[in-house]
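To: structure subgroup
Subject: Chain for Friday's discussion

All,

I'm putting the inputs and outputs inline so they're searchable in the archive.
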Amino acid sequence: MTSSQHDRYELPLSTDSSDAAESYIQGIDLVLSGNVGAEDRLEDALRADEGFALAHAALASLDLRWRRFDSASAHAEAARSLAVGTSKREQQHVDVITSMVDGRGAEALNFASEHLDSFPSDAYILQQYIGMRRGVGCLELNAAILDKIESLEPAYGDDWFYAGTRSFQLHELNRFDESRRYAELSLAGNPRNGNAAHNMAHCFYETADYVAGVDFLNDWIVGYHPDAPHYSHLNWHKALFDLTQGRYQDSYDVYRETIRPSVLKQDIGGLGPPLADATSLFWRFRLYGSPLEQTADWTEIDQFAVTTAAGPRTPFYDAHCALSFAATGNDGAMSALIDALRAAADNGHAVTREVALPLVLGIEAFGRGAYGETIAHIEPVFDDIVRIGGSQAQRMVFEETLLRAYMLAGRTEKAEGLLRRRLEHRHSGRDFFWLAEADSSQGLIDAAGANRRQATALWTDADRDAPEMATR
């Protein structure tokens, strides 16, 4: 089939309907930018041309993301059948998607890599490729993904999707200045690119530009749909920025309005329930001594944690389930989780054996107040926590758990060493408060006072009743 229709990257589309092509382009751009409405646009494309193979393929991948497996299979089969006689590019595009739907992940990844060698500007397949290849945290893997992305630059130039994609991979490698530059380029091309906004939030956080970070999110998130993939998570970033400035009440209000499980769908497009953001925020309230840590909120979170822990093993979510079980004293669920992790470790799951299991055991010990045990479990695997996945901002909660265990176990020299390493690359008011606490416990009154003054200078807008301020 030949057609005069093309996508936004000038790749031919096998449809004679300009309406179908336009709806398809709009739908794909909504997916690429982390916005809602893609399915409606793709359904419009099929209403205009029911034989449009790529629209079926895109719907199949979205159904897969939302775990609508029967619908995904039906759209994949339609795409496979209708792609016969289309261009090589479209047939290969469909092969990638149908392999994913069929559960042939390794084959789909190989297809996607080979396809991008021939058709580098097939942006939707690039997005699928990165999603399939990105696994548990590993700098070497992230570097390899960035190499692939950078090799495709001639096909994209300053395209907003490409710039946003490159930005994300750069911040995964702690190259924050470059990441921010590409995120800004992406937002210049598409101001409503939720993926680029997410990248900006990370860049602000990792460079300790907390005030600018919350100002950016407060402005950008206006008009972003609550059902959009990044809505809850961007609000988590906003709540985190508030915490960095000692604004506990603002952080809690954001949680209640946009993050807590009952205000969200249990399955948010393959991202799972809002477990990680909810647990990590409330565990921080516990570590920081906030009176806003409410039993009722933990009970709600725990219900999601129990459901998550009963599902497939994921080290990142296992660790967050452990935070919930430790906070609520859900000993039965914690024991079941540890037993499952030990079974996975015995069955050869290296990340579970070497990182997730000791991390969970350390969290369990923290919940019992056995801070020496926490240190014994977590300290040896501290540098490997990156392997469970998630971003640096997400994994920070485990670092701070170890830090507080040092303090509560009287290992102030260990706590001070970790705090000074943290302060080498980011100035945090809370870290200075904690450093003052460590100094006070060692009788270093002058040093404690200097660090407390440094902390309060950074917390110009903190809650008056913030726990740290009470130590002044």
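Points worth raising on Friday:
The first helix runs from residue 18 to 32.
Confidence is low (pLDDT under 50) at residues 268-272.

D.
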